[in-house]
């Protein structure tokens, strides 16, 4: 059972130039996380290992972003996404995450990994507005509504999801 954490307005800053790394099994259970991940999340390493990665899920994150993430990696593709994470103490921290499948020697997907960096401030203010619209859409009409909204936005921008994210 996931512990209920009340999000606060405290922002935690990702240290400049640091990589925040985690590895999971095929179900998204954490198998490894580095020291920066542990520090930002506010958990002890033993509290993270073996847990589902949604342990750091922030309620401001739209479900459609995780749907896209899982669709990509389960199809053997990488994805880049802005993610607002929730620490054990309720503080949040924004990252830009590069999530990829991990392949074995025979080309079979055996797990997943994510490498995250401190995002640009300007990108965050843009993505915050979009995510808040997507979350509202999900409250009104579920993930189908946020998916349509995201598609409309990308059409207006004339960009694919990835092109748009990398242009921010
Ligand atoms: C390698 C990897 C890294 C992930 N990193 C995060 C992360 O940093 N934050 C997060 O909220 N979800 C992350 N996820 C997605 C979670 O597994 C989960 O889909 C998401 O938190 C939504 O959880 P929910 O379906 O319980 O709402 C990651 C998944 C994988 C496979």
TrEMBL record:
<dbReference type="InterPro" id="IPR000014">
    <property type="entry name" value="PAS"/>
</dbReference>
<dbReference type="Pfam" id="PF08447">
    <property type="entry name" value="PAS_3"/>
</dbReference>
<dbReference type="InterPro" id="IPR035965">
    <property type="entry name" value="PAS-like_dom_sf"/>
</dbReference>
<protein>
    <submittedName>
        <fullName>PAS sensor protein</fullName>
    </submittedName>
</protein>
<dbReference type="InterPro" id="IPR013655">
    <property type="entry name" value="PAS_fold_3"/>
</dbReference>
<feature type="domain" description="PAS">
    <location>
        <begin position="25"/>
        <end position="76"/>
    </location>
</feature>
């Amino acid at each position: 059972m996931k512990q209920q954490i009340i999000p606060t307005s405290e922002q935690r800053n990702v240290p400049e130039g640091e990589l925040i790394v985690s590895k999971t099994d095929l179900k998204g259970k954490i198998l490894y996380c580095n020291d920066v991940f542990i520090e930002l999340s506010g958990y002890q390493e033993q509290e993270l290992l073996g847990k589902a990665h949604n342990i750091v899920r922030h309620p401001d994150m739209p479900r459609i972003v995780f749907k896209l993430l899982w669709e990509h990696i389960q199809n053997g593709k990488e994805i880049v996404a802005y993610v607002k994470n929730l620490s054990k103490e309720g503080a949040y921290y924004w990252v830009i995450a590069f999530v990829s499948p991990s392949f074995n020697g025979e080309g079979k997907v055996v797990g997943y990994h994510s490498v995250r960096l401190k995002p640009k401030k300007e990108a965050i203010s843009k993505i915050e507005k979009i995510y808040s619209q997507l979350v509202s859409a999900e409250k009104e009409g579920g993930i189908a509504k946020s998916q349509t909204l995201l598609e409309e936005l990308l059409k207006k921008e004339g960009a694919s999801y990835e092109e748009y994210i990398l242009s921010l």
